[in-house]
Design a protein that fits this description.
With about 425 residues, this protein is an alpha/beta fold. Helix content is about 40%, strand content about 10%. It has 19 helices and 13 strands. Among the domains are: about 5-160 and about 380-405, 3-Layer(aba) Sandwich (Rossmann fold), CATH 3.40.50.10800; about 290-370, NadA-like (Rossmann fold). The protein has helices at about 5-10, 30-35, 65-70, 70-85, 100, 110-120, 135-140, 160, 165-180, 200-210, 220-230, 240-250, 270-275, 295-305, 320-325, 330-340, 350-360, 385-395, 410-425; strands at about 90-95, 105-110, 125-130, 150, 195, 215, 235-240, 260, 280-285, 310, 325, 345-350, 365-370. Helix 4 (about 70-85) packs parallel to helix 18 (about 385-395) and helix 6 (about 110-120) packs parallel to helix 7. Bound molecules: iron/sulfur cluster. Iron/sulfur cluster (SF4) binds near residues 158, 287, 289 and 380.
């Protein structure tokens, strides 16, 4: 049963509904109910309590024909449009996307795998990215200028990416430059190297490209930090404090050398001496999906399923990563399950759509999400087959809807930071 079906059954109290709850009754509503709200809103799901900044992209109203069409009609129209468009379109689906959308994807993967997949389909004039905004930006920067990258719902942003905007990071950088200067030390290491997680805006990737910095993913964060330490006395890591802390801690960096920079406080809420002693300055950002996982959930899983293997994503808080058996990217989790002996039991700390799909794909194992409540990524959840049908039929009619374009002035330095990452061998 898909996560969306489970949510609908739970909301209606119907027979066959899973014996769990959801984090919001609004999950049962269609995403277009939130497109029309007067202020930007992430919608129901894990990010629903995060404040969406005014600059968060908004989606205009989806035409009524797509809002009222039954699922069977949308299915027929999506398949017909796909067939009419043939190889001129490629649909990419993120691991965290709902099954009702993923079933139409030509490729399913994490953000970086999907951006690479886009570059490998050079015949595709249109790339429909069923993920979130920063992923579509990356695909646009890595694809050819002739290819149009389309995000079916523009409100599919990312609350974590929104926690570090270019103005706040530039302000932080200016303060750090005031404190440390901009001259390298005797061994040629710069005072600070900026490192941005892939889950960030193109503007921040461009910032890193311009300031001797680099991009990382959850798969290569340690190798990238190694690269940065060779070139800098310390690292400014944004937007995800947890990935930065978990990675640097595993590399032996003491916690007291990892101060947090809160952009809403003077000097980031820290002090000059702490910054001088630092090795990694962590931005005050987090993923609201992975923040939901707790040590208590792990303890309960171990009590209920002796011998369970607990794997969590490194965007989880440090105590959760420490209490788990392993931590790794979505791809790591998938490969670990794939390689396990039949009959294994896994408790997984990552987004529910992915965990649910893994449980269906590997019936020989017992696989469950650590979070006892159904709470998908709010922004991935903003994409629904109705939006997919709308952008596909637009293409059939020769109209490119919801195109994501990164200006050259941003894309060029961002590609520098991305290429530095590609050159790093994990
Ligand atoms: S799971 Fe977290 S980091 Fe990923 S898109 Fe959703 S909010 Fe952003």
């Amino acid at each position: 049963m898909s996560v969306t079906t489970a949510i609908q059954l739970i909301s209606r109290g119907e027979a066959g509904a899973p014996a769990v709850g959801t984090c919001s009754p609004n999950l049962a509503r269609d995403p277009w109910a939130f497109d029309a709200l007067p202020l930007p809103d992430y919608g129901p799901g894990a990010s629903m309590h995060d404040a969406a900044p005014p600059a968060t992209p908004r989606q205009g109203e989806l035409p009524e024909a797509y809002r009222t069409a039954p699922a069977e009609e949308l299915d027929r129209r999506i398949l017909a449009a796909k067939e009419a468009l043939g190889d001129s379109v490629v649909i990419l689906g993120h691991f965290y996307q709902r099954d009702e959308v993923v079933k139409y994807a030509d490729f399913v993967g994490d953000s970086y795998q999907l951006a690479r997949a886009a570059t490998e389909r050079s015949s595709a004039e249109a790339i429909i990215f069923c993920g979130v905004h920063f992923m579509a930006e990356t695909a646009d920067m890595l694809s050819t200028p002739q290819q149009a990258v389309i995000l079916p719902n523009l409100a599919a942003g990312c609350s974590m990416a929104d926690m570090a905007d270019i103005d706040s990071v530039s302000e932080c950088w200016d303060q750090l430059t005031e404190l440390f200067g901009s001259e390298p030390d005797a061994s040629g290491r710069q005072p600070v190297i900026p490192v941005t997680y892939m889950n960030s805006s193109a503007a921040l990737k461009g910032f890193c490209g311009e300031h001797g910095g680099i991009v990382c993913t959850s798969s290569n964060a340690a190798a990238v930090l190694e690269w940065a330490f060779e070139r800098g006395q310390r690292v400014l890591f944004f937007p995800d404090q947890h990935l930065g802390r978990n990675t640097a801690k595993a590399m032996g960096v003491p916690l007291e050398q990892m101060p947090m920079w809160n952009p809403r406080k003077a000097w980031g809420g820290t002090d000059e001496q702490t910054l001088r002693d630092s090795r990694v300055i962590l931005w005050h950002g987090f993923c609201s999906v992975h923040k939901r996982f707790t040590v208590e959930q792990i303890e309960k899983a171990r009590a209920d399923f002796p011998g369970v293997r607990v794997i969590v994503h490194p965007e989880c808080p440090m105590p959760v990563v420490d209490a788990a058996d392993e931590s790794g990217s979505t791809d790591y989790i998938r490969k670990a399950i794939d390689a396990a002996a039949p009959g294994s039991t896994f408790a997984i700390g990552t987004e529910i759509n992915m965990v649910n799909r893994l449980a269906a794909q590997y019936p020989e194992h017992t696989i469950f999400c650590l979070d006892p409540v159904i709470c998908p990524c709010s922004t991935m959840y903003r994409i629904h087959p109705g939006y997919l049908a709308w952008v596909l039929e637009g293409l059939v009619e020769g109209r490119v809807l919801n195109r994501i374009t990164v200006p050259d002035s941003v894309a060029e330095p961002a590609r520098v930071a991305l290429n530095r990452m590609l050159a790093v061998q994990p």
